[in-house]
């Protein structure tokens, strides 16, 4: 989870930098956009890996799913990341996709906080 949050933080910084350069009509470094895209792909993969680990681990330990709010939080994070990735691919063709991308990623901040908190509670169940 820590790597996903680190990737999210790098994406936030690089996204703000891209936004700042675009709005001030200043050139961006050549490496900035590929870094932002790569980090977005890495974060999406990490979130999917965490989903798989969570599903397999929960079913293996508890025998079922849905016994805590962590499942809902995790599925919301996965959905938000999927919409974010999709909207990122649409930015060049559809002008409204940029604002959707930024809005989704703002909501993702709170979803990551929720999934982290609920995941901590699940870890406490595993340890007891």
Record the SSE blueprint.
Elements: H1 2-23, H2 32-62, H3 70-90, H4 96-127
Helix pairs in contact: 1-2, 2-3, 3-4
Give an overview of the whole structure.
The protein has 128 residues and is mainly alpha-helical. The chain is built from four helices and no strands.
Quick description:
This protein has 128 residues and is mostly helical. 83% of the residues lie in helices and 0% in strands.
Question: How many domains in all?
Answer: 1
**Secondary-structure element order, N to C:** HHHH
Average the pLDDT over all residues and give the rounded result. 93
Low-confidence stretches are none
The biggest beta sheet is recorded as: none
Features:
83% helix, elongated, mainly alpha, 128 residues
